[in-house]
Amino acid sequence: MAAKIKRIAINTGGGDAPGLNAVIRAATIAAINRGWEMVGIRDGYNGLFLPKEYPEGGVVPLTRKSVRGITHLGGTILGTTNKGNPLRYPTKAKDGTMVEKDRSDEIMKAFKKQKIDALIAVGGDGSLSIAKAFADKGMRVVGVPKTIDNDLSQTVITFGFDTAVSFATACIDRLHSTAESHQRIMVVEVMGRYAGWIALESGVSGTADVILIPEIPYDIQKVADKINDRTKNGAKFSIVVVAEGAKPVGGSTSVIEKEIGRAERLGGAGEFVTKELQRITGKEARCVVLGHLLRGGTPTTFDRLISLRFGAAAVRALDEGKSGIMVALDPPTVRYVPLEEATKRMKNVPMTSDIVLTARDLGISFGD
After folding, report:
1. How much is the pLDDT for 115?
2. Of the ranges 84-98, 186-200, 206-220, 307-321, which one carries the lowest mean pLDDT score?
3. CA–CA separation, 146 vs 162, rounded Å?
4. Which residues have a catalytic role annotated?
5. Residues 39-74: tens digit of each pLDDT
6. Strand, helix or coil at 151?
7. Domain topology for 163-295+350-361
8. Largest Cα–Cα distance in the chain?
9. On the chain, which terminus has fewer CB atoms closer than 10 Å, C or N?
10. Taking Cα atoms as reference points, which of 126, 144, 157, 125 lies closest to residue 310?
11. How far apart are CA 368 and CA 216, in angstroms?
């Protein structure tokens, strides 16, 4: 029988997403209402195994007062990082080269030293894979799915995605008028890594003419043909939405940075498409990279509600004796799925998706 919970911790890892603070608030209040103490770990796991970098404390108490009024705030009051994976931590070897070292045992010792009985880990596939490793080592762990990319397969949607898509759509709406005024091709690059959900949903909602996603390698000539056809039919501008992970047929994803202990950084896909379209069509083209604008700002009502539901559900799961699971949206309920299943595969856009079919029916080109 599992030991009685007295103190639980929560951390946020990977890229930030609107709704993180709502999760923290819901989990904190739900824990306090059960008579449990709640603490927050600063910057992923850094607050545990790099305590000297936090004079004010790498593990901070969370109270009703400290989480008051944070539901609507973007970002995370605990901080986050996409560097310093404790399973593959960048470490300098004796010969001066950088290698990856497993420091998970140090984290487990830190859990024990801090008298933490359970952990709520909020993150995407990388953060949840780390959480699974700690669950395998005996820590009571519940994961909460977070990513604006919406690429976790075991939940209908992740919080942060709706806010990102809503903002991207608003930006595309604005670009229509300036594109038409200058008779330009406007290329909009959005985040999403290796999944095309943000590009697809914002592109269709924003009535883009072309949408390029990682799941469908594109032929730039076919994209140019679409734009030229629009010109022949009297349209003087075009909107092209490009996912950062989009790639041409026979080509590769555009990576601008690789670093030990950190996910590779994507970028440049939009600029490449812009230059090629301008060269082929002879029309003036401009590129707008939305980038981290998609991560910031106030979460939508939809994302706030999911975040609050996930935070409360994570505490309920611990109260029910669950561990090694992730809370997942399965409308109209929140269910529990094993962390192993949650991180097994990426949720890519299927070619049979009704949204893809709708886009094709509307005459939107995917460059294929």
Report:
1. 96
2. 84-98
3. 12
4. 149
5. 999 999 999 988 788 988 999 999 999 999 999 999
6. coil
7. Rossmann fold (3.40.50)
8. 73
9. N
10. 144
11. 7
Is there a shared CATH topology between the 7-159+299-331 domain and the 163-295+350-361 domain? yes
Nearest to 144 by CA among 157, 136, 134, 86: 157
Lowest mean pLDDT among 107-116, 151-160, 246-255, 347-356: 246-255
359 φ/ψ sector (left φ>0, alpha ψ -120 to 50, else beta): alpha
Report the range of poorest mean pLDDT among 63-67, 95-99, 308-312, 317-321: 95-99
Sole residue written with tokens 């529990």: 336
Decide if pLDDT at 228 tops 60: yes
Report d(CA 183, CA 235) in Å as an integer.
9
**In the structure, what pLDDT confidence band is assigned to residue 259 with cuts at 50, 70 and 90?**
low
Rounded mean pLDDT of 166-194? 95
Say if residues 191 and 291 touch (Cβ distance below 8 Å).
Answer: yes
Q: Is 171 within 8 Å of 365 (Cβ atoms)?
A: no
Residues 6+ apart with CB under 8 A from 296: 16, 18, 74, 75
| Residue 177: strand, helix, or coil | helix
Return d(Cα 112, Cα 116) in angstroms, integer. Answer: 6
267 Cβ partners below 8 Å, 6+ apart?
189, 244, 254, 255, 256, 289
Rounded-to-integer distance, Cα 188 and Cα 208, Å = 10
Please tell me the class of the 7-159+299-331 domain: alpha beta
User: Domain spans of the chain?
Assistant: 7-159+299-331, 163-295+350-361
- Read off the amino acid at residue 127: S
Terminal alpha carbon distance of the chain: 56
Peptide linkage before 332 cis (omega within 30 of 0): yes
Calculate the alpha carbon distances from 355 to 203, 204, 359 in Å. Answer: 10, 8, 6
Q: What are 40's two structure tokens?
A: 């927050």
User: For residue 200, is pLDDT > 50?
Assistant: yes
- 305 close to 19: Cβ distance less than 8 angstroms: no
pLDDT (average), residues 236-254 = 93
* Arithmetic mean of pLDDT, 228-244: 95
By DSSP bridging, strand 89-92 and strand 185-190 are unpaired
